[in-house]
Design brief:
The protein is of the alpha/beta class. It has ten helices and nine strands. The chain has helices spanning 7-19, 35-48, 78-87, 98-101, 120-123, 127-142, 154-166, 196-201, 204-215, 222-234; strands at residues 2-4, 24-29, 53-58, 92-94, 146-150, 172-176, 240-248, 263-271, 274-282. The longest helix has 16 residues, at 127-142. The relative contact order is 0.13. The chain binds adenosine monophosphate (AMP).
Length: 289
């Protein structure tokens, strides 16, 4: 497994693989890897096949963090990450630093105009512009056939599918299911930053989603379901609820009245300085129109 720090080095290796007609599958990450990331590597391998190549990137992208967010304190452990990726059979890692990635005179951005300003985009202005721009750059550097992203970042996956479609990027986007700890907490690199009492309280997100999933087929309206989820979260004194939204699972459009199509419940909750997100797609009853 080669570790590349520069665009030219990884491009040189990729050129050789392309000559062999290898399918190339990219898994972008910000590192500090956990089982959730590793499940993406396995999906990438399935898609690439034994003759294909899996490329992981590790880059804590400064442009997707706002002022006062956790760019500096975001957990990092490169050598452990490299060991985990090697053990997974990943073929190459792109782990550049910010000066390699961004030209000091850069002036071009990629933005999904509508999706970028709703939901998490409202809580974190500029976040999805940073995400769309770095993922575009990674696609241009690596030129993968396919790329794998987790459903944990549901809106991010929607942003990436949208920009790939809109800009004819020709990269197949594969979504991967959320991996959870035994107590239901969605795996996240940020979980290590939770104080012990917050770590103990954080599974309330998964419990609120479990309850909502069970209630969804009852004919309940979106707004009542939302109130229920919010009340469950607010009953946990350590949780600071940032947002609870119920949207059309396919389009992320707002919905009202009884659920008639699959809906996604999107949660953003802070514990101390740690910002956690989680989501669940729920289904109305079979009898719904
Ligand atoms: P990150 O390093 O947080 O930027 O995540 C890199 C990729 O891993 C993204 O596509 C995430 O959606 C995905 N990911 C993060 N946590 C999980 C999880 N618990 N289950 C599945 N995928 C995840």
């Amino acid at each position: 497994m080669e570790i590349h720090r520069s665009k030219s080095a990884i491009r040189a290796e990729l050129a050789l693989w392309r000559k062999q007609d290898a399918t190339i599958v990219l898994v972008p990450t910000m590192g500090f890897l956990h089982e959730g990331h590793l499940s993406l590597m396995r999906l990438a391998r399935q898609r690439a096949g034994a003759q294909g190549r899996v490329v992981a990137s590790i880059f804590v992208n400064p442009t997707q963090f706002g002022p006062g967010e956790d760019f500096e304190s975001y957990p990092r452990d490169e050598s452990r990450d490299f060991d985990l990726l090697r053990a997974e059979g990943v073929d190459a890692v792109f782990a550049p630093d910010a000066t390699e990635v961004y030209d000091p005179h850069a002036q071009t951005i990629v933005e999904t105009t509508e999706l970028a300003k709703t939901l998490i985009g409202k809580l974190r202005p500029g976040h999805f512009r940073g995400v769309a721009t770095i993922v575009t750059k990674l696609f241009n550097i690596i030129r993968p056939d396919a790329a794998v992203f987790g459903e944990k970042d549901y809106q991010q996956l929607a942003v990436i599918r949208t920009m790939t479609r809109d800009l004819d990027m020709g990269v197949e986007i594969i979504g991967a299911p959320i991996q959870r700890e035994a107590d239901g907490l969605a795996m996240s690199s940020r979980n290590v930053r939770l104080a012990p009492a917050d770590r103990a309280a954080a599974p309330i997100l998964a419990r609120a989603l479990d309850q909502a999933e069970a209630m969804a087929p009852s004919g309940i309206t979106a707004s009542r379901l939302r109130s229920h989820v919010r009340a469950t979260l607010e009953a946990e004194p350590r949780a600071r609820v940032q947002s609870v939204d119920i949207r059309d699972a396919a389009t992320l459009d707002t919905i009202s009245g009884p659920l008639t199509r699959p809906a996604v419940i999107l949660l953003a909750v802070s514990f101390g300085k740690v910002f956690l997100i989680d989501n669940r797609v729920v289904h109305p009853s079979q009898e719904a129109p």
